[in-house]
Design a protein that fits this description.
The complex is a heterodimer of chains A (about 60) and B (about 350). Chain A has a single domain, classed as Dodecin subunit-like. In chain A, about 15% of the residues lie in helices and about 50% in strands. A three-stranded antiparallel β-sheet of chain A has the order 1-3-2, covered by helices on one side. In chain A, strand 2 and strand 3 form a beta hairpin. Chain A is elongated, with a radius of gyration of 12 Å. Chain A starts with a strand and ends with a strand. The model of chain A has no long low-confidence stretch (mean pLDDT about 95). In chain B, strand 7 and strand 8 form a beta hairpin. Chain B has a six-stranded parallel β-sheet with strand order 3-2-1-12-13-14, with helices on both faces. In chain B, strands 6-5-9-10 form a four-stranded parallel β-sheet, with helices on both faces. Chain B is globular. Chain B contains twelve helices and 14 strands. Chain B is α/β, with parallel strands linked by helices and about 350 residues long. At the A-B interface, strand 1, helix 1, strand 2 and strand 3 of A face strand 8, helix 5, helix 7 and helix 10 of B.
């Protein structure tokens, strides 16, 4: 097991935010702690900047 | 007065909040909100003043990851009379520093009547390191998370019902960041790593956990900001953690709970929340988003910090307060069934019925 920092940029979709962020983080590991730390404009719509620490389970 | 209205207070750690970004300096705000609501659920960053603390039966002390799971509906909170505290000490601590922490345990047992023990020292240093995110928020790493979890499992097996962790933190007494923090204009560089440690342990064990960093005393700073002073009154940051955990509520997983557990009138669930209070620029955390999506009234407080993740940026509905004193008034209004709109001038425009 190890801990990894991650910064993720995520184009905001319609609907609730929480599931969008959780699903995006889950693709990289088990989220231990995270927060949206900025919301930036882009031509395609708002981009959520997420800072996180993930738990990575190493293969045995 | 109306019955208590459980209220969640979140002030994220490590983002330099003017109020709550230092040594438990949001505690007065928490006490006021506890009085206004009759039941406040909040986290160690709000309550921990190192050598200073305040115990209030209306305040439920819940570590951040458990707070997130509570807000997401996965956990209930059951108030307890006391917890049996296990103490987990980092094997990377020098003998004298370790002894200082053991004397805090003795002091809390003798002077405050807390039940503390078992105590364990890890066989390998935990290897804490500090870092900063692109936003400037403090984060951190743990070289040996497996050692932390193994020691926690051992304490649990020995009967601990809550765990205080003391990890040896890296020191840099000459750093500009530390100087800025001590003078009241910086970010708590330790806070992010502390949260990572307590999140990891609490989510793994399912019991209340909180963390105190072990550091050598700093040279006297005559210009020390009062908000940071709680951390320079003693040799450790541990007393507030032991006091907070001593009556931290039991964490009850709701998915597997029996009907009898769910029917316990003492059990607090997120459906009972009547308000959530958070800094206006720091709304992007899990607990606040979960509450907002559930429709819990969100009060945002002007409390400048590094971030600018506002209700408008996230598309959330919120009631704005210019201070925690105003937020307490709004919480009290909600508790009494008053519409916050009725307290504002100019009064919102007349109700306009839609066309059928």
């Amino acid at each position: 097991m190890r801990l990894e920092p991650l910064e993720l940029r995520l184009l905001r979709q319609g609907g609730p935010l929480l599931d969008q962020v959780r699903q995006a983080l889950a693709a990289h590991g088990r989220p231990l702690r995270w927060a949206i730390t900025a919301v930036e404009p882009s031509p395609a719509g708002p981009v959520l900047v997420v800072e996180a620490v993930l738990v990575i389970e190493d293969d045995l | 007065m109306a019955s208590p209205m459980p209220t969640l207070l979140v002030i994220p750690t490590g983002i330099g909040c003017e109020q709550g970004g230092y040594a438990g300096d949001a505690l007065p705000a928490a006490r006021l909100l506890a009085a206004a609501s009759g039941c406040l659920i909040t986290h160690p960053n709000v309550m921990n003043g190192a050598a200073l603390y305040w115990s209030d039966p209306r305040i439920q002390y819940v570590e951040g990851s458990a707070l997130n799971r509570f807000a997401s509906g996965a956990l209930g909170l059951r108030p307890v009379r006391r917890q049996r505290l296990g103490l987990l000490l980092d094997g990377g601590m020098e003998p004298e520093l370790r002894q200082r922490h053991l004397q805090v345990v003795d002091g809390c047992r003798a002077t405050l009547g807390l039940e503390i023990g078992p105590v364990i020292t890890t066989d390998t240093p935990l290897g804490v390191s500090l870092s900063q995110g692109a936003s400037g928020a403090s984060w951190g790493q743990l070289e040996r998370p497996d050692v932390l979890l193994r020691a926690g499992e051992h304490l649990l097996a020995q009967g601990a019902t809550a765990i205080a962790v003391v990890a040896r933190f890296p020191e840099d007494p000459g750093s500009e960041a530390l100087a800025a923090y001590r003078q009241g204009s910086g970010v708590d560089g330790l806070a992010g790593a502390e949260a990572v440690i307590s999140h990891l342990l609490s989510s793994h064990l399912g019991i209340p956990c909180a963390h105190a960093p072990a550091l050598s005393p700093l040279p006297l700073d005559p210009a020390l900001d009062p908000r940071a002073a709680g951390e320079e009154l003693g040799y450790t940051f541990l007393p507030c953690v032991l006091v907070g955990l001593s009556r931290a509520p039991q964490l009850v997983p709701l998915e597997a709970a029996s009907p009898a557990v769910l029917a316990d009138p003492q059990l607090l669930g997120r459906d009972q929340l009547g308000a959530v209070v958070a800094p206006a620029g720091a709304l992007g955390g899990e607990a606040v988003l979960a509450c907002a999506e559930l429709g819990v009234p969100l009060t945002t407080v002007a409390n400048p910090c590094l971030l600018d993740v506002t209700a408008a940026a996230l598309g959330l509905e919120a009631i704005a307060a210019s201070s925690y004193a105003e937020a307490a008034g709004l919480v009290l209004a909600l508790r009494e069934g008053l519409s916050p709109d009725a307290l504002r001038r100019p009064f919102p425009r007349p109700f306009a019925p839609g066309l059928a």
